# Entry
Amino acid sequence: MPSTTLVENDLVELLYQGKMGLLTADRSLLTTYDAGCSALGQDKVFSVVELPESVEEAVKQWNTPAHIEELDLDVYFATKVNTLEEAVRVVEELNLYREKKMIPMLRFMIYLVEVMKDNNIVWGVGRGSSVSSFLLYLAGLHSVNSVKYNLDIKEFIR
# Structure
């Protein structure tokens, strides 16, 4: 990333443009930002957040309820299939999710759909590689039946 020098107007714009959430920036930019805040007597809006070392560490920070953590995923998905082809796809995908250590994410997606339904939150039809996951379709995260359209799960897993 090219070096960036913040002048007072830039810093003020950064501070007051209402940015919320995560920002990815070069550490040197954040150092300049910190110095600018100090020089102007402004509170810092942005800060450095270290990412967890591993997926396992990240999952410990999630707030997934016990009923989702205890959910038997094999049974949950088996009750949602209608054909042998769908059952085979469920087994294939569950094995891939387990192999890639993505089961916590799958559980969280089930929980997310539950929360959205309970709170009448509207979400999209689906987009990107997620629509190639039949499990996410069965969980209700998107409405594209990847078995019907012969979408390869490897598009999502890669």
In short: The chain has a mean pLDDT of 84. The radius of gyration is 21 Å. The chain is about 50% helix and 0% strand. The longest helix spans residues 84-99.
